[in-house]
Amino acid sequence: xxxxxxxxxxxxxxxxxxxxxxxxxxxxxxxxxxxxxxxxxxxxxxxxxxxxxxxxxxxxxxxxxxxxxxxxxxxxxxxxxxxxxxxxxxxxxxxxxxxxxxxxxxxxxxxxxxxxxxxxxxxxxxxxxxxxxxxxxxxxxxxxxxxxxxxxxxxxxxxxxxxxxxxxxxxxxxxxxxxxxxxxxxxxxxxxxxxxxxxxxxxxxxxxxxxxxxxxxxxxxxxxxxxxxxxxxxxxxxxxxxxxxxxxxxxxxxxxxxxxxxxxxxxxxxxxxxxxxxxxxxxxxxxxxxxxxxxxxxxxxxxxxxxxxxxxxxxxxxxxxxxxxxxxxx
Length: 330
Prior knowledge:
Largest sheet: 3 strands, antiparallel
Protein name: EF-hand domain-containing protein
Number of strands: 5
Main location: membrane
Membrane topology: Multi-pass membrane protein
Number of helices: 14
Order of helices and strands: HEEEHHHHHEHHEHHHHHH
Distance between the termini: 15 Å
Domain EF-hand: 147-182
Helix content: 55-70%
Radius of gyration: 25 Å
InterPro entries: CaH_exchang, EF-hand-dom_pair, EF_Hand_1_Ca_BS, EF_hand_dom, NaCa_Exmemb
Shape: elongated
Strand content: under 5%
């Protein structure tokens, strides 16, 4: 129980707060600007913003606290006669909430869909940058790692077939027609729509030269950060993308088997773990509760914490929303 409570507290305090600080961007009209942090260590005027689905995840997390509150009511009211009844009611509500949550995840798998959308968008970025690199007359990045805007402008001129200073949906389609997206269910029209939505900041259904240069530069810088953090370097090295969406049926079977394996491991090692905590507590004169509540959660959640912080550090509304949704749903 100490490990479970400690893990939850760790997620909602240290990891949550670190993701807010690492992933913060400048705030404009209550919306965080992707990858724009001019405030540095100053917190005012900066922060994060998430989508509505992240709010739903937070509400689900709050609802899950109801059984704990019910169990604590007799203690807060100094009532000894109602403790057994409160535990029974809490147990019934917990089971009902668990079943409801499982059904909700089956019929409303919005977290999985959002992850898939993120993977598709990343795949478009990797594919387009590789394609632009092959078409360019020079390197897209300078020796200092900054985007070479002159080369990107030359690329824009070669793509702009009618030389009107704008790229239309048709011209972008001609650009991406040679990009292979077989690894995931993504056609060229979908890819063009994603590129237009990301580059067309003026929302006039056209991509100007400045918008093209800014968009490609932003993608290159994001790919460089991903490489520096140990991520996929394929965006500017020409490596093959590794994101592959597996068969949905196999994922479901695999998830069930992993849950079963986790339950067996927990049943097998729960008692030895309690004994080890007691022995360590006796040897160090540290209360067993603090070991299970503080030290064990830090050890068991370290890799998850690092992953969440790296994901949030990409300073994008989409990645921030996914990070906090996963924190709330755990």
